[in-house]
Design goal:
Radius of gyration: 24 Å
Mean pLDDT: 90
Shape: elongated
Largest sheet: 8 strands, antiparallel, barrel
Distance between the termini: 46 Å
CATH class: Mainly Beta
Number of domains: 1
Strand content: over 45%
CATH topology: Porin
Structural class: alpha+beta
Length: 220
């Protein structure tokens, strides 16, 4: 009799385990956007600006996940910088691809949950002028010209020979970390609304690019 009871308990346990595994999604997707807070040079040249993220990955357990994430970050300069530093019709952006690890806090508060995220990636920062600008000596270099990587500005601080300033792109490695809160919905296959803060730092050869996106979106 005892053996039958033990077999019955084991059988019920296996059914419960299989049921839990069947409801566990192996994949995760993320889409969101919001304001980006600039730091250092980004704060000086750009200030705060919009950004958007898209991600997809795998859930290894209910606690540990990973994803590959794309981020678009607007780097259009402040109007005062454009006017004051001779950068008419300037535009800029940063595209990044990162591989991130996600740690979900096991304790939930009703539908609310929390998580931490960290990762490494590549960041492509690009700036350009709609109309290339020809600079003649002895023009004094402006602080925001740093992102055009002009050799004369790096060495002398002013233009010593005729130079055209048009566009420039810098690709570098970097890292990110942050965390967020989620709220599980009753709809959309129980997707989660999330609010997330992140810190991104890219090590371009001319300067570090540091941004802090605050993202609102859907995770499922």
């Amino acid at each position: 009799m005892r053996n039958r009871i033990l077999l019955f308990v084991i059988f019920c346990g296996l059914i419960a385990s299989a049921s839990a595994q069947s409801s566990f999604s192996r994949y995760n997707f993320t889409v969101g956007g919001g304001p980006g807070i600039g730091k250092d040079y980004v704060a000086s040249f750009v200030g705060n600006s919009p950004q958007a993220t898209f991600g997809a990955g795998m859930n290894f357990t209910r606690m540990f996940s990973a994803d590959i994430e794309y981020m678009y970050y607007n780097l259009d300069f402040r109007p005062s910088v454009i006017r004051g530093q001779a950068l008419a019709d300037q535009s800029g952006k940063m595209n990044s691809i990162s591989v991130d690890g996600i740690v979900n806090v096991p304790k939930h508060l009703g539908r609310f949950a929390a998580y931490g995220i960290f990762g490494i990636g590549f960041y492509d920062r690009n700036v350009k002028l709609a109309h290339p600008q020809l600079l003649f000596p002895p023009t004094l270099c402006q602080p925001a010209w740093l992102w055009w990587d002009l050799p004369d500005c790096a060495v002398n601080g002013f233009i010593t020979s005729p130079t055209t300033m048009s566009s420039n792109s810098k690709i570098a490695g970097g890292f990110n970390y942050g965390g967020g809160l989620t709220f599980r919905l009753n709809h959309l296959d129980h997707a989660k609304l999330f609010l997330e803060w992140r810190y991104h730092r890219a090590y371009q050869s001319d300067s570090k690019t540091v941004v802090m996106p605050v993202t609102v979106g859907l995770r499922w």
